Protein 1
Amino acid sequence: MIKKILLILLALLAFSAPALAAGVLNIDIYGPGQSRVNLFVAEALSKDGSGPVGAIPGNAPAELQQRIHANCAFLPFFNMLSGKDIVGGPNPGGYVAQSIDFNKFQLARTDVLVTAAWAPRPGGVGEVELRAYEVYTGRLIVGKGYGVASNQQIPEVAARFCADLMEALTGQGDFFRSNIAFIKKEGQRKQVYMATAQGLNLQKITNLDGIAVSPAWSHDGQKLVFVFLDKKYHNLCVWDRRTRSLDKKRLPGNTLIAPAFTKTGNVAISLDMRGNPDIYELNSEYKVVRVLEENWGIDIGPDFDRSGEKMVFVSNRLGNPHVFLKNMATGVSKRISLTGKYNTGPSISPDGTQVVFAQMVNGKHKLFLVDLPSGRERQLTFGAGSDEDPTWSPDGYFIAFASNRSGPSQIYLTTKHGDEPILIPTGPGEATSPAWGKL
């Protein structure tokens, strides 16, 4: 009888407290199934224990809370709870485990609780301690302190904390340590812009009299390469993040198409210097040093994995445009887009295991993903409009792409699992050609 009661109690504990049963809460974002975690971001408290924040100037505490909530809401494995979901009120009672009333958050099925404690800081906004707790065990997942000199630093503080939280739960936090470059149309011109993956800190990189196309980041995120079309020529442009300088180069041939950085920091690009476009590698002085892919057909759109051992590209050597994979060690190229008649814009995951590309389906482009080890191919995006120009995030989990599904082309975000696309706000105007890179 006692044994039976113990078994029942153990079963109840496993049902009511999955985090406790597991020991450590974590999220497998790369596996076939994806956990969803209930997360609540509590209102800020005073660090001296006097209750709600009152001595911090402006609305910094509320803005930080909102930023953290909005950042986490971008992630498909978080289900964001509101104060109305917490029976007994959303105030945690304190910001350290010893003073937090975890019971009411357990009743609301909260998995992760984020607390904030502020203290005034002479000559600045204040100092804040941010903590994330596993509710069913009271375990501290992340604890960080930040000095905030001005309200302009609030987005950066929120991004840093969310990166650490995501890394603690998933093993990767680069989503919040990266940004996306893209092309915005301004009348007859097209300029390069960049923003965070959440659409924050929007910056205009170029102000050129012409059309910029096909941006691509170096693997370390310090340089951005793109093609610029002025009234006479196609030019290769390289923007340096450190110096914010722009270097413009003329290359052999009349047409430059879709540059990309290799692992070593050289640039690969399609040039028509011998007739049809082929893929060449340029050295650090942007001189042609070797052919990477040459064929009687058109070869464009190179992209490389982090190791530099694999290159994907598009070729029409079989009649229609298809995606090919080249083993850089053996020199062997093979077709990897096995369905459809029009496949373009490939991007290979940093670990070299998956390739995402755009396929024409009933007159509209849709994103498809091929798993290289198995060769299996599946459709990622559906619905109205065309989805094009996919680019992998540095962590190999998210995919940004351009789509006109809601009107003029904008930048959207999905995952390798094909989660519902999320619009990345980039301001007014058409936005295309996203390129994801590290900060």
Note: The domain at 25-170 is CATH 3.40.50.10070 (Rossmann fold).
Protein 2
Amino acid sequence: MSAGVAPRDPARRRWLGGALALAAAAMARRAGAVSLPPCAAAAAWPAWQAFVARHVQDDGRVVDFATPDLRSTSEGQSYALFFALVDNDPLLFERVLGWTRHNLMGGNAYDSLPAWLWGRAGDGQWRVLDQNNATDADLWIAYTLLEAGRLWERRGYTSAGLRKLQLARQSLIAEVPGLGPMLLPGRTGFHDGKRWTFNPSYVPLQLLRRFAAVDSKGPWRALAASSARMISGSAPVGFAADWIAWDGRAFGIDPAKGSTGSYDAIRVYLWAGMLDAKEPLRAALLRDLSGPAQMLRAQGKFAEKIDVVHGVGTGAAPVGFAAALLPYLAALGEGEPLKTQQQRIPAATTPAADALPYYERNLVLFGQGWLENRYRFSADGRLLPAWRSRPCSATT
């Protein structure tokens, strides 16, 4: 297991990272482990490079330095895998996957879902702090393994991704009265016998479309429809909630978490904005999530927290929210609000960008990276990274 937080000396990190990369590349060539398509160089991505320098240790652990336990989460590991694939960096991908497998899955990548939380415990030891899973991270890990297998022609990744889908089918999908198949946010703690609890940001439809294409016997197509119904049905005035409840008849406020839409809900608009124009559920979903666009037009700014029942916002929205709204505003053709939100995001190499916390930087990578055409999702959920469509030059 990782011995905590690696030294943050940039020079040492560059040297050690380069040495590890060269050694791994040599081993991969000898073993024939990495097979990349021709002309596969990715364009420089300063925001991702800055994130790696700050938050990704040399062993592949992603650290949230803003937390007292210096935690790592399955969410953070899953996002890093995705961005490493978008950046066409198989060596970093393997390091992140290796740390995730050994520390969150007990070394068993095929027969377990990762624990969601790892960090420094009260006794000073570094270990898993909560064995429960986080379903959104599990979906992103399965998806990224499948797409890494396809894009990098690595059958082992494809097999691992399919196994993750099988585990999700066995552990995380419930037949919910009045809704049909639904993904629970985790294995335990989300059904008390009377009420079901869901998180609308945990079910990007792109991922479910891809799962339906590769696992036709699974309930993924039905899950996409029921998830879209959940998102729309729980946004009565156009704003997504962080958490919602279902009592068998209607969606309502989760009594434990309240009527707030904030740091979780911002991803609902992000995922919806990145849907392909041919996605049949896209138009209705964007219509039912009209709240942010209306607020920006009326007030010129978004809020950190939204009362999703009354549509009233409080607090200044952080920079990461501006980035998350970019695909959503682009999909709606909201040119002026889009420009305003773009201007809020600092350049990747500035101190202001470096000061952004872990979660906001992830939102910047997703939203701004999409707007910069670094990746897209097809209607059937395939990842379309820019490096796969970049033409060959005389030097490649």
Note: The mean pLDDT is 90.
Protein 3
Amino acid sequence: MFGETPQKTEEPNAMETIDRFLDRVENLPPAPTVAIQLLELFSDPDRDIDRIVAIIKLDPSLTAATLKRCNNSAFSGMEPAADMFEAVCRLGLYEIYSLVTGLIASQTMTAVRAKYSWDSTRLWRHTVTTAVIASILAKRVEVVEASAFTAGLLHDLGKIIFVSVEGVAYAEMARNAGLFGPAVVAAEKSAFGFSHADLGARLLARWGIPENICVAVQRHHHSPAAANQHQRFAATVHLANALAHQMVDGSANAPAAADASQQAMELVELKAKDLPALRQQIALAMERVQGLLQLHG
């Protein structure tokens, strides 16, 4: 359901603490209305292409950016798409959805980077990779691809909010603890009483993002099975995050996918012997996405 609050964090007053923190943010990213409306349409088996086009066209800058990406070199040799309807028909609904939501997330990342001179390139690459992997894993457990892509794209939103409020102080914390992994989560909880996963999930709930996405964002570091009816969905994002760390971060402390969560592997019906073929599939998918999304934001 839309607008429901994700499962509570371990601290009794954590929700109120997070809300007070969010209320301090002077320039919160606006709710991604277009993405929310598109996601709702994707849940409808009888979705209407004309309605999808109409929603995207409500934002002229988004329309222009989408057409520009559609007509990039990845489609050389074809006549340029003249309007959004042609772009949707050419690329397909899922590709357009991925492109639009990616552009929205990229704009948010770019705005924070410009304000705080924070190099977000590494985080953006990890974000997009997680989204792509989550959508691939979703097919294994019959989860809606668009929802999985969205959850992957938003799973580290809390880091952007931390930077928006704490600026240089949070950037320094991330440098000391590492931008990814358990160390930065522990540092966040020590400093603020909650992690970027808790913070991002709460903001998404306030935006009216579907509950399954909120819960998956909150649990992308731990215990996807505790997500109850959303456990398989949460497991796709949890595992996608671990695989993205391996493929993008490449550092010695990047969690090994097979060891990150055996529980998540079982929920997604993935075995260690499946990982080489999965990595090849991910590599091919990333080649396609890089033709549509500027990973630099």
Note: The domain at 14-290 is CATH 1.10.3210.10 (Hypothetical protein af1432).
